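#onboarding

Welcome to the new folks! Below is a worked example of what a typical request in this channel looks like: someone posts a single protein sequence, and someone else replies with the predicted structure as tokens. Don't worry about understanding the tokens yet, we'll cover that in week two.

Example request:
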Amino acid sequence: MEISCYRDREIAREIRHLPAATYNLAIQLLARSKTGNVFLPIRAMQYLAILDDREFIFIDGHSKSLIDIAWQHFHPQKRETLEEPVEYEAAYYFEHSKDLMNRLQGEFHKALLAVSEKDKIEAPAKVLKFEIKR
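Example response:
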């Protein structure tokens, strides 16, 4: 899938924290992606999230190609355990964008869970032993 996205001038930016469970799920989905991108529909809000290794962008289903919000500059290295939230910067491109953040963060997590449940591996892991020839 190919989508062209455009940004208006950034009108605000703030430091926020993404819950560990949400960040970890997003990174797991990215790691499984063959293209390095994840297209994640957030149906409850009619938004599309596009994830890559640098940022997560959010596009309103009505505008189709204009980025409303971008989550950037993730700092997972600042946390001491995998259960701690991850600091990031939220960039806003429209006046209404900041009002959406709390709901967007919650619905984003629900969308991640829905996709990860579809790709869940139900079989137990197997350890393969390889003989070392000397």
